[in-house]
Design a protein that fits this description.
Length: about 130
């Protein structure tokens, strides 16, 4: 019986390739050409398209300087805001909520001044 089919050689680990800034910039510029896809440029240079996309994000489009990805401005900036009620809530207003039930509907009548308590009740009913 031949034992070679059961023996396995450990796979050789590939070394991580490093690319120069000039090479990365040439790839990014090649992707800017009209009618050129990132995938086609990546295939031509035997590079993963996700890596090319990362280079495009990292390099600025103005002068080609490398940007630190941690210092790139976010697309969304949360601004502090406190909601101010322009007019006081009339505490005499009553909310009417109808909850359908198998036999009869359940009607809740609640004062607007007690909205937090209503929220707690609805949370308790939902669980």
């Amino acid at each position: 019986m031949n034992m070679d089919i059961y023996s396995a050689t450990p796979p050789v680990a590939k070394k991580r390739r490093k690319y120069s800034k000039e090479f990365k910039l040439s790839i990014v510029n090649a992707c800017k050409n009209p009618n050129t896809s990132i995938a086609s440029v990546a295939l031509q240079h035997s590079i993963n398209a996700n890596l090319v996309s990362r280079w495009i994000r990292i390099f600025s489009h103005h002068d080609g300087a490398v940007q630190d990805p941690t210092h790139v401005n976010p697309a969304f900036i949360a601004l502090p805001y406190t909601a101010a009620i322009s007019q006081p809530i009339d505490e005499r207003i009553t909310l009417c909520i109808t909850v359908p039930h198998t036999n009869n509907d359940i009607q809740l009548k609640w004062q607007t001044s007690e909205i937090p308590a209503l929220a707690e009740l609805l949370k308790a009913l939902a669980t």
